[in-house]
Design goal:
The complex is a heterodimer of chains A (315) and B (321). By secondary structure, chain A is an alpha+beta fold. Chain A has a five-stranded antiparallel sheet with strand order 8-7-6-5-9. In chain A, α1 packs across α3. Chain A is elongated. In chain B, the strands form four sheets. Chain B has a five-stranded antiparallel sheet, covered by helices on one side. In chain B, strands 13-14-12-15 form a four-stranded antiparallel sheet. Chain B has a three-stranded antiparallel sheet with strand order 1-5-4. By secondary structure, chain B is α+β, with helices and mostly antiparallel strands. Chain B is elongated, with a radius of gyration of 29 Å. Chain B has four domains: 82 residues; 40 residues; 72 residues, Roll (SH3 type barrels), CATH 2.30.30; 90 residues, no CATH class. The model of chain B has no long low-confidence stretch (mean pLDDT 87). Chains A and B meet through α1, α3, α4, β3 and β4 of A and α1, α3, β2, α4 and α5 of B. β6 of chain A pairs parallel with β6 of chain B, so a sheet runs across the interface.
């Protein structure tokens, strides 16, 4: 009984794999893989003959099927008259670690890929990490890959952006890009503030695909550092803060500060302050466990604020 | 059941062979359920990959089997790699590539030494996607100790600073599960002095050492929670404040407008002044918001928050006077 098309195509792939070094001729395929010739032991195929043409068409159809269904592609090397498998995208080792990664990290918020794609069938019950990806990451990713400007509603205003990169800061997703109305000044938008309409897409094209060019000066590490202390423009000050020992790790994490002294019940940390108001607000979060010791201008900032609030302020 | 088309057969094979590779092995009946076929129908679809045939250079028919195995217990397994995937030239579709890149990025941040295969794979995905995706992943410093204790079935002794507390306290915890959710690492663990397991944030552990108590971590049937019910901790403050001052309020919080700018007092115009409810989780965040408001902001409710705000500021001020 002749093999089914499924059998024939899989056998063809296995045969190409078996001969991947040397490659194979059309005649070798016809003789070696069941389903291409009625008489596998017959004489060689005569180029341009009706049988040769029929086998060639069938092989090419099966190559197309291998490409569409399995992503396996074959190149015909003209000078050798041989077909060769192209190099795989991932090595088996790379695929193995990606599958392990996919089983360790469960991802919420992204569309599923193609059925049967790598990592689609892992058992993520044992996943250690759950990552939430904002639903609009997909859409912005496509816009960035297609280099197309996009228009969207942000906090009630229509914005146009040439998107350059996606990133996370403090567990929130942002897109960074150029504002075409401001000479491509960099702007960043929080994805959870982009309005998603009840029907229709949240992003619409605002230009031609391929028209966005990411500038050379773009620095993604800085783009997604949204700490006001990193980009503030207030006069730069070196702050010295006394922090109760139990609160030092949280303080260092919050400010990226450096511990310079450690006593029995407190540590002294130093940091550079570039945004005075945000420094004040964040220090207040530590209540009495963080006390600013220097410089005087920052001490006064905190003291004057507390005095005014303690005095009743707006009540 | 209608006969499967050629494309449908390949789609079934893609899924079932992916299961076999990614889970190591799978009962045929379970795989059949996943792809919506009967076991017998799936068995027939699988046959071509279980028994491959072609002729060798001498013209002898070679039967290849072994890459995918269906054993006598009807369990499908993959023995020496998924050879069809080994040949796949085209990169993953964009959705799959993004999922894999996110997963790879997180794992790369956690492994103690670089994994060249993982680094190369992540690089290929990044280039394929043509997007810059910045996802800083910073595991807490004590994660290693916690994972080690969990893996060894030993308790951990920690100094733990609970939210809103002034001082840390020492606890001995039996860790049932270690996981990361919403960018933070947690353990689900039972304090040896308590009967119920709770969630603890690893970044709030100031010190951690592997303890002396040995135990067999139970199967944590609850899995990783999709969310923590913090509704009992929600605190609402009604304030009247300049709209621009809302930007300086510490996160996280939710703001619900009560009155629009300029209409807080009928008949008067107070440009840029808004009346809003600020909803936060926990007393510590409520206190932080109260302290962070500009002095001229008014706290309207609850009434006791007015005095509480003054007292908080006075207490902090003592350290500066």
């Amino acid at each position: 009984m002749p093999p089914s098309p499924t059998e024939r195509i899989l056998n063809l792939a296995a045969f190409l794999n078996d001969r991947r070094r040397a490659g194979v001729t059309l005649d070798e395929i016809a003789r070696s893989v069941p389903g291409y010739r009625d008489d596998a032991d017959g004489t060689d195929l005569v180029p341009q003959s009706p049988e040769w043409e029929a086998v060639r068409r069938k092989v090419r159809r099966d190559f197309a099927s291998l490409q569409d269904e399995w992503g396996i592609t074959v190149t015909y090397v003209e000078e050798q008259h041989r077909y060769r498998l192209d190099r795989a995208f991932f090595t088996p080792g790379e695929r193995k670690v990606l599958i392990a990664a996919a089983s360790a990290v469960a991802i919420d918020g992204l569309d599923d890929g193609r059925p049967g794609a790598i990592g689609s069938k892992v058992d993520d019950q044992a996943a250690q990490i759950v990552v939430a990806v904002h639903a609009l990451v997909d859409d912005f990713r496509d816009a960035i890959a297609d280099a197309v400007p996009v228009r969207f509603d942000y906090d009630g205003a229509v914005r146009v952006l040439e998107p350059w990169a996606l990133g996370v800061w403090r567990n929130r997703w942002y897109v960074a890009g150029g504002d075409p109305t401001r000479d491509l000044d960099m702007r960043r938008f929080r994805l959870d503030r982009v309005r998603v309409p009840p029907t229709g897409p949240a992003l619409t094209p605002a230009g031609a695909p391929g028209s966005v060019v990411r500038p050379d000066w773009f620095d993604e590490a800085r783009a997604f550092d949204l700490d006001p202390n990193s980009w503030g423009h207030d006069p730069e000050l070196e702050a010295r803060v006394r922090v109760a020992l139990d609160h030092v790790p949280a303080f260092v994490d919050e400010f990226g500060a450096t511990v310079v002294e450690r006593g029995p019940d407190h540590a002294v940390v130093v940091l550079t302050v570039r945004h005075h108001e945000s420094f004040l607000v964040r220090v207040l979060g530590f209540r009495g466990h963080a006390v600013v010791e220097a410089p005087p201008v920052l001490v006064d900032l905190v003291r004057d604020h507390l005095r005014a609030v303690a005095a009743g302020g707006g009540a | 059941m209608a006969a499967l088309t050629h494309a449908q057969r390949f789609a079934v094979l893609r899924e079932v062979l992916a299961i076999a590779e990614e889970r190591g092995s799978v009962p045929l009946a379970d795989a059949a359920d996943e792809v919506g076929l009967t076991t017998e129908k799936l068995r027939a679809v699988l046959e071509p990959v279980l028994f491959l045939e072609f002729r060798d250079e001498e013209g002898e028919l070679v039967s290849l089997s072994g890459a995918f195995l269906l054993d006598e217990h009807d369990r499908l397994s993959v023995d020496s790699g998924h050879w069809l995937r080994d040949l796949t030239v085209t990169p993953p579709d964009r959705d799959t590539a993004l999922r894999l890149l996110v997963a790879a990025t997180h794992v790369r941040a956690l492994v103690p030494t670089p994994v060249p295969d993982l680094d190369r794979a992540a690089g290929k995905l990044q280039r394929h996607l043509q997007v810059i995706l910045r996802m800083p992943v910073a595991p807490p410093p004590l994660l290693d100790v916690v994972q080690s204790a969990h893996a060894r079935g030993r308790s951990i002794v920690v100094r733990y600073l609970s939210d809103g507390q002034d001082e840390a306290r020492t606890r001995e915890l039996l860790v049932w599960r270690v996981f990361a959710q919403w960018g933070r690492w947690y353990v689900r663990a039972r304090d040896v002095t308590e009967s119920e397991a709770k969630f603890f944030r690893i970044d709030r552990m100031l010190e951690a050492t592997v303890g002396d108590t040995a135990f067999d971590p139970p199967d944590d049937a609850e899995g990783i929670p999709e969310w923590f019910d913090l509704s009992a901790n929600l605190r609402t403050l009604r304030i009247r404040v300049a709209a621009r001052a809302l930007e300086r309020l510490p996160s996280p919080h939710r703001i619900e407008p009560v009155a629009e700018p300029g209409v807080t007092e009928p008949g008067t115009v107070e440009a840029d002044v808004v009346e809003v409810d600020v909803i936060v989780s926990g007393d510590r965040h409520r206190d932080h918001v109260l302290l962070s408001l500009p002095p001229e902001a008014e706290v309207l409710a609850p009434p006791e928050a007015v005095e509480h705000r003054r007292a908080l500021a006075a207490r902090m001020l003592a350290a500066y006077e």
